[in-house]
Each structure stands twice: as structure tokens, then as C-alpha cells.
């Protein structure tokens, strides 16, 4: 039996530890900086008891995939040392933190560090591996399909196979591929296919190239990831992608990056003279409809389980659009080391037990009917 130790780091090889130690330490130091408010806005509410959480932001690294990452120099992901992963470790983690099931996905860089047939074969390997977990642990695992992006034709083929034949629960897309953000017309054929299947799409941030970002001594997962999610979401809205494909349900990682905080700024056009004079009986162009589009995203709690983050999300959408996420195993260093077995105690600063049950259990299962049937069977 694999035992999970709270706060314990997943196993790393020596090269991974050396490659990411500094970035990981910086991330922890930044998180511990004093000066911010420490008292909750109200008395913290207790979480529900039992193993009930459905985790829609959880990652996996099948053996051949992790080996390929390391062989291609990806010793860290977003500045975090590339972790080890196994089904046994995942189950031990879930059991400790009261997680009933996880919808697994491949994190940045997806399979885009490969090209052509190699990328397509690796995507197929990861998706088939995930489908195998449905057989070995049907009540504990779901999955979002990784696609061989930015090859659109190959990605459509893999998406259809993963959704129609493997019966995965949705698709994961990165915020950008080779500097091209979601919302770009080049992705249109894929969006058509996903919309036809009413797909659930998890939008996860990607690291931008070193020559395209400030040279700050901070790991990407600390800030840059949230900014890249924001860029992708904004591009999808202003280009009308979220309007044209209303049957795709998009989940934005980490409480939407900075989308809730910037929602007023992003929607300034609707508050201009153009927005004020636009006839009510005419469909609004995307630039004037951003408030509505922002409200339609789903926002996960991964690394965002705080009153500040969740209060911001609640200003732009309803509680029914918030879903639980742990970001494990990439969150292993940041998980609370308490006896409560609560992976996100900060949620209790703003939600009571019934509301947390809605966010951490009911909302995720409403979006993933295959997983809901498996969990409830």
C-alpha cells in the first residue's frame, strides 16, 4: 500500500530536484511573505465530512510521458520540479484529502514538445492510459484528453477518438501553442468539432518563451501562469469564439487567472458610448458581450482557495460555475499540513458546508456525466 504524507514532495530524480529547487524555494518564499491580511472576513466554516470531493484540476504523468519530458529537458514544469506520479500515489493523496474522484489531465507542455507522429503517438498513449484507469479504478478516475496541438487535423482526430471511443470526460487545451492563443482563427476547425460534441474543455496555462517574458527570478506557476490564462480567455471572448461555440463549456484554471479581477477593465467597451447606444434587440458583438461571456466560464479553486479569490469570482458568475481543483501533484509543496485533511481550508472563509458540497461535489459531477454515472453506480 502506498502511504501519503501531507506536504510530502513526490519522488524526483536528482536532475529534476537540481533543476527546480531554486524555483520551488522562491515560490514558497513568495507565498510566505508577510504584510497581507491574515484574518478571515468571517469565522471559518467547517467543511463537509467524508470523501466527497470531485477534483477537476488534477494532473497525471504516465511513465513513458514523464520519461519523454525529462529526455527533452523538461526538468521543471512552470518552475516546479517535474514530479513523479502513479495511480497508487494519486489514490493515497485522494484518500487523505477526502477526494472521491479526479479528472486527470496532462499539464503544460502537453505533448507540444514533440512534433508530427511522435506528438500524436504520445497523445494517444496518454489518453489510452487514462481510459485504462476507468477499468482498474472506475469510481476514482476521470480524464481530459490531451491533443497533439498545434496540429489541428491530428488534434481533431484525437479529440474524436478520445471522446467517442475512449469516452474521456473532456479535453484539455493550453492557453497558447507556439505563442498563438486560443481564440485565434487557426483553432476554428477544432472548436467546431468540440462544439458539436458539447465538450467540456479545461483551459490550462502554458509557459511563455523566456524571450517573451520579463527576466524575473520567479517560477512561472507563481504569476505568469495566471496571466497566460487571462490572455487566452480574453482572446476567446474578443474574437467571438465563446459566442460562436456556446455548447463548449470552458473551465479556466486557478480561478480564471486574473479574469475576475480585470472583468471591469476587459468589459470597458460595453460601458462606452457604443455599448450604451447598442440596440437591445440586436445581438451584441463579442467586444460588447464580455460580461456575459465571463459569467459563462467555469472557474476552479486550484491554488485559489481563498476568500479574496473566490469573492472576486462570485462578483462575475454564480456559485454554480465554481468547481474544485487541487492541482496535485504540482501542489504537493503547498498543501496544508494540518490534521483536518482539508486540501483547501481557505474555502471555509467564504463558503459554508452546504456551499462547499455544491462547489466540491455537485458542480463538477453536473459537468461530467460519464464520471457522475461511474461515481454513483
- CATH architecture name: Alpha-Beta Barrel
Q: Fill in the CATH topology.
A: TIM Barrel
Largest sheet: 8 strands, parallel
The portion of residues forming beta strands comes to: 5-15%
Rg (C-alpha, Å):
20 Å
Textual characterization of the structure:
The chain has helices at 14-31, 63-71, 87-96, 116-136, 152-165, 188-196, 224-238, 241-244, 253-256, 259-266, 273-277, 290-296, 307-314, 353-367, 369-376, and strands at residues 53-59, 76-77, 80-81, 99-105, 141-145, 170-174, 176-177, 180-181, 200-204, 249-252, 298-300, 322-323. Helices cover 41% and strands 12% of the residues. It has 377 residues and is of the alpha/beta class. It has a single domain, classed as TIM Barrel (Alpha-Beta Barrel), CATH 3.20.20.140. The chain contains 15 helices and twelve strands. Helix 4 runs parallel beside helix 5 (152-165) and helix 5 (152-165) runs parallel beside helix 6.
Keywords:
377 residues, alpha/beta, TIM Barrel, eight-stranded parallel β-sheet, two-stranded antiparallel ribbon, 15 helices, 12 strands, 41% helix
Helix and strand layout, with pairings?
Blueprint: H1 14-31, E1 53-59, H2 63-71, E2 76-77, E3 80-81, H3 87-96, E4 99-105, H4 116-136, E5 141-145, H5 152-165, E6 170-174, E7 176-177, E8 180-181, H6 188-196, E9 200-204, H7 224-238, H8 241-244, E10 249-252, H9 253-256, H10 259-266, H11 273-277, H12 290-296, E11 298-300, H13 307-314, E12 322-323, H14 353-367, H15 369-376
Parallel strand pairs: 1-4, 4-5, 5-6, 6-9, 9-10, 10-11, 11-12
Antiparallel strand pairs: 2-3, 7-8
Helix pairs in contact: 4-5, 5-6
Amino acid at each position: 500500500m502506498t502511504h501519503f504524507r501531507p506536504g510530502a514532495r513526490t519522488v524526483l530524480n536528482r536532475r529534476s530536484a537540481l533543476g527546480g529547487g531554486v524555483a520551488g524555494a522562491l515560490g514558497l518564499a513568495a507565498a510566505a511573505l508577510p504584510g497581507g491580511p491574515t484574518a478571515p472576513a468571517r469565522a471559518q466554516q467547517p467543511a463537509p465530512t467524508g470523501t466527497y470531493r470531485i477534483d477537476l484540476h488534477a494532473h497525471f504523468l504516465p511513465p513513458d510521458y514523464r520519461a519523454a519530458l525529462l529526455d527533452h529537458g523538461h526538468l521543471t514544469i512552470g518552475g516546479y520540479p517535474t514530479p513523479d506520479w502513479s495511480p497508487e500515489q494519486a489514490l493515497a493523496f485522494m484518500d487523505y484529502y477526502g477526494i472521491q474522484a479526479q479528472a486527470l489531465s496532462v499539464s503544460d507542455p502537453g505533448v507540444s514538445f514533440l512534433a508530427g507522429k511522435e506528438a500524436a503517438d504520445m497523445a494517444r498513449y496518454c489518453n489510452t492510459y487514462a481510459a485504462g484507469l476507468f477499468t482498474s479504478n472506475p469510481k476514482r478516475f476521470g480524464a481530459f484528453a490531451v491533443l497533439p496541438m498545434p496540429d489541428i487535423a491530428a488534434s481533431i482526430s484525437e479529440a474524436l477518438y478520445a471522446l467517442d471511443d475512449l469516452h474521456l470526460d473532456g479535453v484539455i487545451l493550453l492557453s497558447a501553442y507556439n505563442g498563438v492563443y486560443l481564440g485565434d482563427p487557426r483553432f476554428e476547425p477544432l472548436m467546431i468539432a468540440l462544439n458539436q460534441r458539447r465538450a467540456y474543455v479545461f483551459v490550462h496555462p502554458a509557459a511563455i518563451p523566456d524571450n517573451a517574458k520579463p527576466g524575473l527570478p520567479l517560477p512561472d506557476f507563481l504569476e505568469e501562469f495566471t496571466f497566460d490564462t487571462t490572455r487566452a480567455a480574453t482572446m476567446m471572448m474578443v474574437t467571438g469564439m465563446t459566442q460562436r461555440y456556446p455548447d463548449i463549456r470552458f473551465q479556466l484554471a486557478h480561478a480564471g487567472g486574473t479574469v475576475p479581477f480585470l472583468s471591469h477593465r476587459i468589459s470597458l467597451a460595453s460601458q462606452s458610448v457604443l455599448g450604451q447606444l447598442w440596440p437591445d434587440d440586436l445581438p451584441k458583438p463579442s467586444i460588447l458581450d464580455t460580461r456575459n461571456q465571463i459569467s459563462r466560464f467555469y472557474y476552479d479553486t486550484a491554488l485559489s482557495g481563498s476568500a479574496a479569490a473566490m469573492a472576486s469570482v462570485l462578483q462575475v458568475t454564480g456559485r454554480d460555475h465554481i468547481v474544485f481543483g487541487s492541482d496535485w501533484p504540482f501542489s504537493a509543496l503547498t498543501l496544508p499540513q494540518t490534521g483536518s485533511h482539508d486540501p483547501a481550508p481557505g474555502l471555509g472563509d467564504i463558503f459554508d458546508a452546504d456551499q462547499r458540497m455544491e462547489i466540491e461535489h455537485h458542480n463538477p459531477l453536473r459537468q461530467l456525466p460519464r464520471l457522475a454515472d461511474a461515481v454513483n453506480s
